[in-house]
Design brief:
This protein is α/β, with parallel strands linked by helices. The protein is 20% helix and 23% strand. Strands 5-2-1-6-7-8 form a six-stranded parallel beta sheet. It is globular, with a radius of gyration of 16 Å.
Amino acid sequence: MDKTALLVIDVQNDFCPGGALAVADGDAVVGVINAMLADFPVRVFTQDWHPAGHGSFASSHPGKAAFETTEMPYGTQVLWPDHCVQGTKGAAFHPDLSTEPADLIIRKGANPAIDSYSAFFENDRTTPTGLEGYLRTRGVERLVLTGLATDFCVAYSALDAARLGFAAEVRLDACRAIDLDGSLGAALDQMRAAGVTLAGA
């Protein structure tokens, strides 16, 4: 496991029950992830970290409702309820998540014009977060991904990891999904096709 990193995606209050963009049973991942942390020499956490009025928020598009889509310069964008606004309680990690072991915390989605699902790239698919370089310098070759939500930020991160040449495994027991119009099934199919290992179901 010496060249394996644990990636903990967006286990934040707004994605847990009671949050602005709650994932069903989202807080159930916390205990599973906490139990895994000691097994990995490299642990990276991500946070959605949006400025107020972010372009992915439905409230930024008059006449549009949450979960509708719009076209952005980088492609089709799902419009979300306002969530994970910088400095708010909703953007904070779940209070029971053990964040002390984190070697690195990546904050993504801070550019008001581009959403950012993946831990590696913003949604234009080209603007890097810096995570790849960090993992390379740490000698990491394999990633185990956990967190929220399986079908968006976890899947995008796993697909990018595979595309960049990392061996990627998603621990489904340590993830929960939004499943918007069949998005979970589609994401699982995409990950399998890309060579991502799906474990712990």
